[in-house]
């Protein structure tokens, strides 16, 4: 389970067996989790307990680090 980014309380990662799917990232904090697709545009895949405001904050972090997240996926997969 490669961790691709840590920012604030968030850990961004994907599972090694996810490589058959299109690029995405999981985001965890405490007992909360979400999945965001990275292609063709950043979209929410699923959400477990994050508020709408926090999802917007996470999406901004993803946009600010999109090249890094995509490159980490490509390098691993």
Describe this structure in words.
This protein has 77 residues and is α+β, with helices and mostly antiparallel strands. The longest helix has 13 residues, at 52-64. It has helices at 52-64, 66-76, and strands spanning 3-7, 10-13, 24-29, 32-37, 43-48. It has a five-stranded antiparallel sheet with strand order 1-2-3-4-5, with helices on one face. The protein has two helices and five strands. 31% of the residues lie in helices and 35% in strands.
Features:
77 residues, alpha+beta, five-stranded antiparallel sheet, 2 helices, 5 strands, 31% helix, 35% strand, globular
Q: Distance between termini?
A: 12 Å
Shape: globular
What do the pLDDT scores average to?
A: 97
Strand order of the largest sheet: 1-2-3-4-5
**Structural class designation:** alpha+beta
The SSE order reads: EEEEEHH
Low-confidence stretches: none
| Helical amount | 25-40%
> What is the radius of gyration computed over CA atoms, rounded to a whole number of angstroms?
11 Å
Biggest β-sheet strands, sense, barrel: 5 strands, antiparallel
**Share of β-strand residues:** 35-45%
Question: How many runs of DSSP E, i.e. beta strands?
Answer: 5
Tally of separate helices: 2
């Amino acid at each position: 389970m490669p961790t691709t980014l840590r920012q604030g309380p968030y850990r961004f990662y994907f599972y090694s067996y996810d490589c058959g799917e299109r690029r995405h990232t999981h985001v965890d904090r405490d007992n909360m989790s979400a999945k965001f697709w990275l292609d063709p545009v950043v979209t929410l895949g699923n959400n477990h307990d994050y508020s709408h405001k926090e999802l917007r904050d996470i999406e901004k972090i993803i946009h600010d680090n999109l090249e890094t997240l995509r490159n980490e996926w490509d390098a691993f997969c």
